[in-house]
Design a protein that fits this description.
The chain is α/β, with parallel strands linked by helices. Helices cover 34% and strands 16% of the residues. It has 6 helices and 6 strands; from the N terminus they run βαβαβαβααβαβ. The two termini are 35 Å apart.
């Protein structure tokens, strides 16, 4: 590390408290959903009611975070039917995504949750299956106590625009590219 890269001062102090925030985890790297689920654990530990809606992953995945989160009281909806390249019926996949958005909208607008995670919501937004502007408007007009995390590659500019924090995960190296299959407990 060069001397000019070493910070000489701390970051500016935050000056205001927000009732809630919107976080977007995007990019082609691994860890977008995992980061969101870590925040869900933090929220549960603070006594918040938390909801996760999965837009892509199906029950076949048996995602490890799901069983742990349910034991902790997280309202977890695995509504996806898998990635499109696995779909046998694209019209059904689109209908499943629309239902996941209907549930998500209901959960956000209810004001019952301190945190709602829209896991991999960017895929159906980018495919035109759910209207990006509607998603953004629901997030923008949410009850002030509802925090939202949206995950997935290629977050639309409109979603990034409504977010308070955007993290772009960048793939530097991935075992999958070397032919290594996903490992239960590490990858899902």
């Amino acid at each position: 590390m060069r001397a000019q890269e070493i910070p000489l001062e701390g970051p500016a102090r935050a000056t205001r408290k927000a009732a809630s925030v919107v976080i977007v985890n995007t990019g082609d790297g691994k860890g977008k959903s995992t980061a969101a689920f870590g925040t869900a654990l933090r929220a549960v530990a603070r006594g918040w009611k938390v909801c996760v809606v999965q837009f892509i992953k199906s029950d076949r995945w048996k995602v490890g975070e799901r069983s742990a989160a349910i034991r902790l009281g997280v309202d977890w909806w695995t509504l996806g039917d898998g990635f499109t390249w696995d779909s046998k019926n694209m019209e059904q996949s689109e209908a499943v995504a629309r239902e996941a958005w209907r549930v998500s909208r209901e959960k956000i607008e209810s004001g019952d949750y301190g945190l709602v995670i829209l896991d991999e919501v960017t895929y159906p937004m980018n495919w035109g299956w759910i209207p990006t502007l509607e998603v953004v408007e629901v997030i923008r007009s949410r009850p002030s106590s509802v925090n939202v995390i949206a995950t997935g590659r290629d977050a639309p500019a409109e979603l990034i625009g409504v977010a308070d924090t955007v993290t772009e995960m960048r793939k530097t190296k991935h075992a999958f590219d070397a032919g290594v299959r996903a490992i239960r407990g590490i990858d899902f």
